[in-house]
Amino acid sequence: MKYTIFLLVLFSSIMLAQAELSIEHLDYTDHGNSGCELETPLSVEVTSSRSGAPVRNYQVHFAIIGGDAELIPAEGYYTIEEGSAEGLVVQTDENGIARVDVELGKMGEITVAASITDSDGVPSTVSFGFVSLDVKAIVFQIIGGLAVFLLGMQMMSANLQQVAGNRMKSILRTLTANRFMGIIAGALVTALVQSSSATTVITVGFVNSALMTLQQAVGVVLGANIGTTITGQLIAFKITRYAFPMIALGFALSAFSKNRKRQMWGKVILGLGLLFLGMTTMSGVMKPLRGSAPVREFFTAFSANPILAIIAGTLVTVFVQSSSATVGLTMTLAGSGLIGLQGAIFLVLGDNIGTTITAQLAAIGSNRAAKQAAMAHTLINLIGAVYFALLALDQDGFFIKLVRRTSSDAMRQVANAHTMFNVVNCLLFIPLVPALTRLCRIVIPSGDDDAPEPDILLDSNLLATPILALDNLDREIAKMARVSGKGVCRAAEHFLFGKHQAKRILAMEDSVDDMQRDLTVYASQLFKENLSHEQTLRLPVILHSINDIERVSDHAVNMVEARNRVEGNVLDSEGPLTVAAGQAFETLREMADQVVTALETHDLKAAQKVLILEGRMNQIEEEARDNYGNSLATYGIANMTGLAVLDFIDYCERAGDHMKNIAQSIIGGGVWHGQEPGE
Q1: Is 302 exposed, middle or buried (0-12, 13-18, 19+ CB in 10 A)?
Q2: 131: alpha, beta or left? (left if phi > 0; alpha if psi -120 to 50)
Q3: Helices and strands, counts by H and E, the chain
């Protein structure tokens, strides 16, 4: 009992002792520029807790307990130097105030403690928290971190595409029989190559080449949206601490391995490490910003405005051409406490709208179906963003609460929100795919099939990803072949029947010449890129095919000029020569159709048929030469007319030779074997 009473007395005396003096800090600035003094000195007021009167000439110990800064005696205040930049003892003035200035060091959060000790040895402490900001370092590190992130993403995606190669395209071709398989194919390929843009660009190309219907393309786009969420989930696992080991391992594999596939896998690992390093850099520079009230207020006001946040997410994604980069940046902001979950969701919704710009760019110059496929991607993400934004307007609503329940970590919440958006949006649109395709056809109605062929579109942004650039070349070469084939067939009809205007045919030949120039320059630029062995072998064959297509078009000019030497319908004349001319025309037209089919679909049967037709064309030409003299003697065709008809057949045969070269390159897998195609 005596021991209990002793403790109560001791506790009461301590409480009384603690109540003798009180210390509290006065208003101060919570941020400043690195290397400069804090705008407002740190001030504390010491008062008697009993009377409330200020206590003068009392010693206050200031000490830096966190961050990089230096305490400087404030003007007009008596300071006892302690021989340390981290501690100063300052006496209070007549108002009970003690004050020190602070010179800020390197960027980061800083904490300063001010403490007093009363006559009974009882301490009292208050602390100041503020942040040292280096605007130049912030800008450079955010831009640099984003650049490293994008470099890593590009390196990882490009080399994954190299490793996947044609497997990626074959998956899309074979697994799109219905919308459900299309979704699986789109998600699988996008997760494999870590680029929804690559998947959508290939999809638009397939639609443009009639390899995939619009309805199949919609399924692939829905799957691509799901596949692109993998990057955010990887980041949320917080394996950024392994960035440097991954960079070291990836570099070692890519630099020292003699196996090319192992080198590419090394670059994939190196790219993933750089991606994580970029995230770490951005995260490190953003953490100090949360200590600044103005910075917090800016981001809070910005992210709380749904329209502004969605527009910002859209513009950033359009600018950096990477939805993963925007999601990663948003996760960093959320993880640093600069924006809340609601603002992060709005930014992610904008990111999903912005990522559709790649498909829209790929569709420029393509046919109506390809443009409709790109529009489907835009409509899916735009409609989804609208209704998800409405769900996210209520900060205490069902959707926000659901996302919060998925994890206590802010970065994981953003990644989960991104995944939930794309998965739910996919599930919503699965039954609506037929309706969506009809809507796309209304927004972009089908045009006249006989409309002039559009100019070729060569996207220079794809050069850094050779597999996509080669796909781009394949599509545009097929388009060039279609124009060239149409031109030579019209020239043949012009010679035989007088149909079509010569001016129009010659204009088509000029267009083919322009295509040859642009395609050749684009293909030549690819030699500067990091190509696989197979891609290096493909380029010479591509260049030869471009030249062969142009030479086919040259013979159209010869046919137009030969028309000046004949009159009327050439086939009205009797005799084996005119019969041969009609046979040569029909064979030429069928060859032109089969070459286009072979180029668009890499159909080996169509290419084989071209070779068969070319053999028939050779036979027609040989028989025509044998029958030339007999035709002149028996049927009385004028020498000039007969010679013009024979020249026409010869032009058809020469055009057929160039088509045979193209077919042989397709049968040979489009790979250079050390000799001219057709030899």
Answers
A1: middle
A2: beta
A3: 24, 10
For residue 233, the Cα-to-chain-centroid distance in whole angstroms is 17
Q: Furthest-apart CA pair in the chain: how many Å?
A: 147
CB atoms within 10 A of CB 84: 10
Which strand (E) or helix (H) includes residue 66? strand 59-66
**Residue type at 235 in one-letter notation:** I
* Full DSSP string of 414-460: HHHHHHHHHHHHHHHHTTTHHHHHHHHHHHS----TTSPPPPP---G
Cα 182 to Cα 176, 196, 215: the distances in Å are: 4, 14, 9
CB-based contact 214:372 (threshold 8 Å): yes
Q: Which range has the worst mean pLDDT, 5-14, 130-139, 260-269?
A: 5-14
Name all domains of the chain by residue range, CATH numbers in brackets. 2-133 (2.60.40.10), 137-443 (no CATH), 475-667 (1.20.58.220)
Best CA proximity match to 475, nearest among 490, 456, 488, 503: 456
d(CA 40, CA 99): 10
The whole-angstrom separation of Cα 105 and Cα 35 is: 5
Side-chain half-sphere CA neighbours of 333 within 13 A:
29
Structure tokens, 506: 């010659």
Q: Helix, strand, coil: what percent of the chain each, to 5?
A: 70, 10, 20
Q: Which pTM does this prediction carry? A: 0.53
Q: What's the distance, Cα to Cα, between the start and end of the chain in Å?
A: 114
User: What residues have CB less than 8 Å from 373, skipping those under 6 apart?
Assistant: 203, 204, 207, 214, 217, 218, 221, 359, 363, 440
Q: Tell which phi-psi region holds residue 400, choosing left (phi > 0), alpha (psi between -120 and 50) or beta.
A: alpha
Query: Measuring CA to CA, which residue among 554, 560, 579, 550 is closest to residue 637?
Result: 579
Q: What is the mean pLDDT of residues 438-457?
A: 65
The token pair at 356 is 């559709």
Closest CA to 196 of 418, 528, 512, 448: 418
Residue 16 one-letter amino acid: L
170 token code pair:
């074959």
64 - beta bridge partners?
112
CA atoms within 13 A on the CB side of 370: 25
Q: How far is residue 95's CA from residue 47's CA, in Å, rounded to a whole number?
A: 9
Residue 290 · residue 334 · CB < 8 Å: no
d(CA 282, CA 289): 11
Arithmetic mean of pLDDT over the chain: 78
Six-digit token pair at 608? Answer: 């084989």
**In this structure, are residues 88 and 42 in contact, taking their beta carbons and an 8 Å threshold?**
no
Angstrom distance (rounded) from CA 552 to CA 656? 8
User: 362 pLDDT exceeds 70?
Assistant: no
- Helical axes 293-304 vs 306-320, angle rounded to 10°: 90
The Cα 130–Cα 293 span in angstroms is: 9
The string of pLDDT tens digits covering residues 605-640 is 988 999 999 999 999 888 888 776 665 555 545 456
Q: Judge whether residue 654 has pLDDT over 90.
A: yes
| Short-list 205, 169, 521, 510, CA closest to 364 | 205
Helix (H) or strand (E) holding 235: helix 230-236
Residues 6 or more apart from 582 whose CB is under 8 A from it?
A: 496, 571
Give the residues across from 375 on adjacent strands: none
Nearest alpha carbon to residue 107 among 143, 69, 145: 69
Counting other chains too, the contacts that 398-403 makes at CB distance below 8 Å and 24 or more residues apart are 400/341, 400/342, 400/345, 403/341, 403/345
